[in-house]
Write a structure and sequence with these properties.
Strands 1-2-3-4 form a four-stranded antiparallel sheet, with no helix packed on it. It contains no helices and seven strands. Helix content is 0%, strand content 42%. The chain has strands at residues 2-5, 11-20, 27-31, 39-44, 52-54, 60-62, 68-69. With 79 residues, it is an all-beta fold.
Length: 79
């Protein structure tokens, strides 16, 4: 895992082996320790940002560049 520092000075660990495909570039899983025990969120490789969000349907979106991973299961009733 690759250690990276957030804008707040926190060290997080990006696992480039755990990939979720995005519309502009992949998202990588992020952990709070190098051992990968606690998942923190996702890292956007397109703009190199930790500022991402995931909704209850599994959709991941980068709040900076709007890189988007579509939901695992899509239902028109949720739109």
């Amino acid at each position: 895992m690759q250690a990276r520092t957030t804008a707040d000075g926190e060290t997080l660990y990006v696992d480039e082996r755990t990939v979720e495909r995005g519309s502009k570039g992949p998202f990588y899983a992020v952990y709070t320790s190098e051992a990968g025990e606690t998942k923190w969120g996702y890292f956007c490789s397109n703009c190199e940002s930790f500022d991402t969000a995931m909704d209850s349907m599994g959709r991941i979106e980068c709040n900076n560049c709007r890189n988007l991973r579509k939901a695992d299961e899509w239902d028109a009733a949720h739109e």
